[in-house]
Amino acid sequence: MSELAQSPSPSANQPDARARDLDAALRTASPPEIIAAALREVGRDRLALVSSFGTESAALLKVMADVDPAIPVIFLDTGWLFAETLAYRDTLIDQLGLTDVRSVKPLAADLDRDDPAHELWFSDPDKCCFIRKVEPLKRALAPFDAWLNGRKRFQGGVRAEIPVVEADGVRLKFNPFANVSRDDINAIYALGKLPPHPLLASGFLSVGCMPCTSRAESEQDTRSGRWQGRGKTECGIHTMKTS
């Protein structure tokens, strides 16, 4: 595994082929091993972790901090986040010793043009997600060659078949928690003495923007409280190319 991650191959400049090579090598690797391999592959200055600081985010942030707390963390501040999420972000930054958390906001010009009444979340949630999440993430990832995220197969839906490593346009996309279980997440919280998200106790099992987040209908589907009744399950940052 480490030899593949450290040594250049004929596919090194071809993201699709390189992603397949890395996915094969890391298929059974642990989350820390996957993060360490990503670091070896592109270097700290070219690797970012994207976090919502949501209900399960502390687990991946803890694992990353144990590997290297200086890896840049991108946080999308959409303008619609719960105050509890912003406070939780600050708590985790302090507790985990994260040294490079970058809060990225949507462009004011886009909001003025497309959402002057702040009701786009209702009339066109896909477009709202695009200008508040997808476009800001594209800008934030511009300096990076690879990124880490916290998707898990047990979350179901389009996430049920995610690989450990995939190509995202010209970038590599690492999914260190692809293989973890809910029990694994709970164990990371317990061993790391990580605080829960403040809204978790109120039934919010997955937390995003305020207008589009409800209490979950089932503990078996933690994302059932996102965009309830809208036929929408993803904001777009994992279904649209970021480059």
Mean pLDDT metric: 86
Question: What is the terminal separation in angstroms?
Answer: 27 Å
User: What summary fits the major beta sheet?
Assistant: 6 strands, mixed
Radius of gyration (CA) equals: 17 Å
Describe what you observe in this structure.
Keywords: Cytoplasm, Iron, Iron-sulfur, Metal-binding, Oxidoreductase. One of its GO terms (molecular function) is metal ion binding. It catalyses: [thioredoxin]-disulfide + sulfite + AMP + 2 H(+) = adenosine 5'-phosphosulfate + [thioredoxin]-dithiol. Its EC number is 1.8.4.10. InterPro entries: PAPS/APS_Rdtase (IPR004511), PAPS_reduct_dom (IPR002500), Rossmann-like_a/b/a_fold (IPR014729). With 243 residues, this protein is of the alpha/beta class. It has a single domain, classed as Rossmann fold, CATH 3.40.50. It is 38% helix and 9% strand. The protein contains 9 helices and 6 strands. It has helices at 2-6, 15-26, 31-42, 57-67, 83-96, 108-114, 120-123, 125-141, 182-192, and strands spanning 47-50, 73-76, 101-104, 146-148, 165-168, 171-174. A 6-stranded mixed sheet has the order 3-2-1-4-6-5, with helices on both faces. Helix 3 crosses helix 4 (57-67). The longest helix is centred in the middle third of the chain and has 17 residues, at 125-141. The model is unreliable at 1-12 (pLDDT under 50).
